Amino acid sequence: MICSRCIYDDRIPYITFDGNGICNYCRQHEQLDLEYPTGEKGWAILEGMAKKIRESGKNKKYDVVVGVSGGCDSSYLLYLAKKLDLRPLAAHFDNTWNSRTAVENIQNVLNKLKIDLYTHVVDNREYNDLFKSFLKASVPEIDTPSDIGLATTHYLAARKYGIKYIFEGHSFRTEGITPHGWVYMDGKYIETVQKQFGTMPIKTLPNLWFLPWLKWVIFNRIKKIRPLYYIEYKKEEVKEFLNKEFGWQWYGGHHMENRTAYFANNFYLPKKFAIDLRYSEFSALVRSGQMSREEALQKIAAPKPFDPDILDEVKKRLGFSDAEFAAVMEKPKKTYRDYRTYKQTFERLRWFFWGLYKLNLVPKSFYMKYTRKYRDER
Ligand SMILES: [Zn+2]
Q1: Using one digit for the tens of pLDDT, what is the confidence trace for 257-291?
Q2: How far apart are CA 170 and CA 226, in angstroms?
Q3: Distance CA 363, CA 378 (A)
Q4: In the chain, at which end, N or C, are there fewer CB atoms within 10 A of the end residue's CB?
């Protein structure tokens, strides 16, 4: 069965359909749409936030941390921060697998907007070891050390300069709502997998530990905001704008600015786990009227493009022979539930996180996704 509005079907985890054949993810989108208005109303909310952020930045060098990857969303976010009359500090986590286009994009946008950059570079041997550990663990989350490294880098930059706000480039209208069960991440999970499969300890990856994170959230009151939720964010128009304004280049697909992300999304996840993130992206574009359902169905039918040179590079840098790599792909599939994570701690503390969410200290999405016990988790 397939949703009558988007292109999610019954292979999507935790999907349900209502009497009109519309899926729960579409209904969730409708709710978010109401909760986060765009247009004049959205802009007024953003300006109100910017005022608060400027006040919190008084007598400091910067007002807000903006995470950058060289991608479309984060590049546009830098422009938006300036337009809101803020003094942003860009923060970048370098996992040593950046594409050249991404690096050039970051430089071009920062130079033109005169924005300083805070970078955290991980030791490349350590990162490759970690990457290899996740492949050996046989789970979908092979790129989460980068996601976690990025999240922690934002906090480190904020703490260093006493900044109270972090801008994130997510937009549910273009990126979508990733179903639970596709990808899970937390700091404990990364530590467990590395201890079990790695050959060296985690030293230079900024891992997100539970207690420092709580300290940043509760005592330092560092808040995360997703400004793209409040604007008419049309991906194609934004790409054109960035190109004209900053000489920014498109690198050929969502999350493809980095080669580990590209390998995960275009090869490993679809081939081993039948997870194709285009379902979430295209469904979002259909729901927000930026792509027709027919076009989405047509596009999804074509296999994901993949550059075989990247596979060779992964094998070479990780020291996998062809036979070893084939064994990795054949190994029985596991999930995060086969390893130690913070998930049970989050579930036990559900009431506590509800309080933090009500105090506006953690995002609703965190509370909903991480503290809920799912039916297959016993
Ligand atoms: Zn749907």
Answers
A1: 899 999 999 999 999 999 999 999 999 999 999 99
A2: 6
A3: 25
A4: C
Note the pLDDT tens digit of each residue in 191-216: 999 999 999 999 999 999 999 999 99
Alpha-helix runs per DSSP H in the chain: 24-35, 39-56, 72-83, 100-113, 124-137, 144-161, 187-197, 210-214, 235-246, 259-263, 269-273, 278-287, 293-301, 308-318, 322-330, 343-348, 350-358, 364-370
Instruction: Output the CA 178–ligand 1 centroid distance in Å.
Output: 12
CA 73 to centroid of ligand 1, rounded, Å = 24
| CA 372 to centroid of ligand 1, rounded, Å | 22
Ligand 1 mean position, distance from CA 2 (Å): 8
Separation between Cα atoms, residue 253 and residue 211, nearest integer Å: 36
Distance from the alpha carbon of residue 31 to the mean position of ligand 1, in angstroms: 13
Ligand 1 centre to CA of 251 (Å) is 28
Number of helices followed by number of strands (H, E) in the chain: 18, 5
Give the whole-angstrom CA distance, residue 78 versus residue 89. 9
Q: How many CB atoms are closer than 10 A to CB 234? A: 16
Phi, psi of 121 (to 5 degrees): -105, 130
Question: 246 phi and psi, to 5 degrees?
Answer: -125, 5
Separation of alpha carbons 354 and 366, rounded Å: 10
Residue 187 corresponds to which tokens in the numbers above?
A: 């700091």
CB distance 257 to 105 below 8 Å: yes
Reported as half-sphere exposure (CB side, CA atoms, 13 A), residue 289 has a value of 4
List CB contacts of 221: < 8 A, sequence separation 6 or more: 164, 361
- What H or E segment, with its residue span, contains residue 88? strand 88-94
Give dist(CA 258, CA 266) in Å, integer. Answer: 12
Structure token digits, residue 115 = 């924005």
Per residue in 217-265, pLDDT (tens digit) is: 999 999 999 999 999 999 899 999 999 999 999 877 666 689 999 999 9
Q: Which two tokens stand for residue 193?
A: 């997998």
- Among the listed residues 237, 231, 258, the one whose alpha carbon sits nearest the alpha carbon of residue 150: 258
Pairing of strands 64-67, 116-121: unpaired
Phi, psi at residue 343, to the nearest 5°? -55, -45
Unique residue bearing structure tokens 């109303």: 41
